[in-house]
Design a protein that fits this description.
- By secondary structure, the chain is of the alpha/beta class.
- Helices cover 40% and strands 14% of the residues.
- It has one domain: Rossmann fold (3-Layer(aba) Sandwich), CATH 3.40.50.720.
- Helix 1 crosses helix 8.
- The model has no long low-confidence stretch (mean pLDDT 96).
- Bound molecules: 2-hydroxyethylsulfonic acid (8X3).
- Keywords: Oxidoreductase.
Length: 264
Amino acid sequence: MSYAPPHIPGPHIPGIVLISGATGDFGSAFARRFAALGSRLILAGRTPEKLKALADSLDVPTHTLAFDVRDRKAMEAAIASIPAEFAAIDLLINNAGLALGMEPAQKANLDDWEIMVDTNDKALAIMTGLILPGMVERGAGHIINLSSTAGSYPYPGGHVYCASKAFVTQFSLSLRADLLGTGVRVTSVEPGMVETSFSLVRFKGDAEKAAKVYADTTPLTAEDVAESVTWAATLPPHFNVNRLEIMPTVQAPAGLAVHRFKKA
Ligand code: 8X3
């Protein structure tokens, strides 16, 4: 199920929106929503062809930035290259992120751990640091960080992914503390199970494993997450959503696990 056209937005339409991970399932859903509202878009992603295809499909002025968020120098150069007419960013959606692997921690691939921390945390913080001073100077702006229920409810095989999302939530709340009085808003959006290519990436292309995650149930969709992001972003400027935890009705935090000894 998806929503088209989007629900009635609030009164605040962000003028310029920068979306990282723009060509992914979430990112492109966000891009379509904000384009429908008339926002101008800066689309950041790794693949120039995919960025161009997305930009060409939208009816609003767009600027594309092709770089890997894990390459700090490339990120700094990309942000510095934003043309003047796109420079006053109203909304930054820190969306680039991923999960890799679901083996127990003691069997995990340490390269996977490094990539998750570099992408989900380090890049998100640096991107924020690059965009924030302009927002504070203008006395307005909004940073929406894509966290996850995984940041609050750990699960077997979640280890660094869960921890990386706890970072995103706590970083968002900490930003609120520093930005008090500046007019800049911060929101941590924390979705649970959403059917996207998330699991295909996590299981490194194993389509069968990925499909099992969403089989015989009704997960959220990228459009549902876009609904939440649009809601938080279009509220009037005096209204800050700190955390927005969403999950499908079929999912719930369902208790702690207990190991029981085998009877002799
Ligand atoms: C995605 C939600 O539960 O697969 O962030 O980790 S979960």
